[in-house]
Each structure stands twice: as C-alpha cells, then as structure tokens.
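Quick one, T. Sequence first:
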Amino acid sequence: MIFIRADANETIATGHVMRCLSIADAAKKLGEDTTFIMADDSAECLVKSRGYNTVILHTPWDDMEQEIDKIIPVIRSKGIQNLLIDSYQVTEKYLKTLSKETKLAYIDDIDRFVYPVDMLICYAAYAEKFGYPSKYADTELLLGTKYAPLRQEFCGIGKKAIHDKIGRILVLSGGTDPMNVLRQILDEMIAFKDIYIDAVCGIYNPNFDMLRERYISHKNISLHHSIDNIVDYMKSADIAISAAGTTLYELCACGTPTISYVIADNQTDNAVWFDENNIIEFAGDVRLDDIGHNLARIMPKYCDRAYRENLSVEMQELVDGRGAGRIVEVLVENI
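Structure tokens:
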C-alpha cells in the first residue's frame, strides 16, 4: 500500500493531486493500491473517481502544522511505512515531526528549505539549479525529467507528425484560471479564422459559462470543461498554448510544439528554462505582461514547419512519459 498526502481546491487547483494520481496509477500496475490523505474533501470525488481510497483530516489545507495531531494517529493505525507528500504548505517542523513516525518522500520544485526527508523527487527540467546533491548527502534523490510523473497515456507516444500548416491549436489554462487568461488568449486567436481552436477549462475554472457565451458565435472555437482524454487533444493539436506547470511535460511527451505562459510563481522557473533552452517559447506572466500581444509576436515563428519539427524532436527527447513508474519502483523498494 502506498500513501500520499496531497490537496486540490479552487485556490491551488489540481496539479499536485493529478501528478500523484499518475503515481497511484503506476503503482496499481505493480499491484500496489494507494490511499490519499487530504486536508478536506475538495478533491475527494476526483480521487475516488479514479478508484482510490481517501482519508480526510478535516484540517486547514494551508496550515499543515495544525494537522500533525490528526495525521500521526493515521500513520500509526494504518502502519504507514513510507508517506509521499506533495504540498507547498509543508514546514520544517511538520516534516521533522512526521519523520519520527515514518519514512518521508517529498515532491519539490521550488527548494524552499532543506527538507528533512528520506527521499526527494524533483522532476523539473531545471532541477540542477538547486544543487540538491550538495545539500542532501543522506537523502535518496530522484532528479530530472526522467521522473516526470505523467499518466500512462503519455508513455511510449510515437514521433509526432508535423503538418505544413497549423490547422489546430490547443489552449490550456490548468485547473483554475483566476486571471481569466483564456479570454486574453482567445481574443487574440479570433483573428485566425482558418484555424480550429480547442480551449480547455479546468474543473475549478469559474469562467466557463461566460467564455462559452462570449465565443458561441465563433465556429472555429470549441470550449471544453474538464475533459478526461486530454492526451488525444494534445496529440491532434499542431501547437499548444499552456500554463507552465506539469502540463508542459505532458506536451513534451506528445511532441506538441508549445508556447507557455505563467500564472503562478512556481511556474516561472519552468517557463524560463524551456525558453532559454529553445524548446518552448515563453509568452510572459499574465500578472505582468500582455499575453495576447506576446502571442501575436511569437506565432509567426511557429508557422514555420521546420521550426515546429525541431521543437517536437527536442521535446520528446526530454520526456518519455515513464517517470511515474520509475518513482513507484523506488517507493515500493522502501515500503
């Protein structure tokens, strides 16, 4: 049995839980079941719909020290030998206290402090910048894009066919869209009358009805709400425009040429690294920049077939979609 501590809600969206669900799916293939421990029931339906059990602590998701007295009895009663944690809300006190009860594995991509854990996972392309090996002499380190925890559908995708012209664009905003960036992007894309646009709203996006009403007369724009087969949309798109979270690694596995933008601080390193390494161009931070203007500047480059083909090759060389399985193999060894 694998135990995972993660949350999702309208504030932090679904990224943490979704990548942990990928790990749970990979564990199931190896015959290991998974239980999710969560602060509240905001994401309970999502987790249960994927076939996994939950333990709800009924504590504030953004103050994890308040749950210490509730999670320790869970660890003891369920005999948890190894707990995987995926939350930016952890504190040194929280981790140190739990480490006295069980082995801890932690997924990181911001390097807030030296985490007192037994295993540290950072699948970010920019992981090297944090200098983990010099700070974690006694911690097992799983570093780099080979550990990107993607769903099984992203494993073993063949080379992408690159068309001469862009016929389909996929626009993604993640689980929530507090800045209504989809509207900024779609307003810019309206000018491309001969290109079909799929725009995907996450389950916590509050603007879906407004967006549907705004673009209902534009026959080349389709709005989708929390779709299950996102990999099919990624594979069929000629290019994608996406927030710079884990979704960029999914798009890499598909080989879909992508333009990124930032909606939260923890996405900046991703966006900058991919841009500086000429793999995914960066259209800016929606909180600071005119994303629509930047897209208009970048799009002509993506109209070049050879340019898109080179990007696609680079992307698939970086991510092979087998990261979740690699993480599970190490976790199982430590149970």
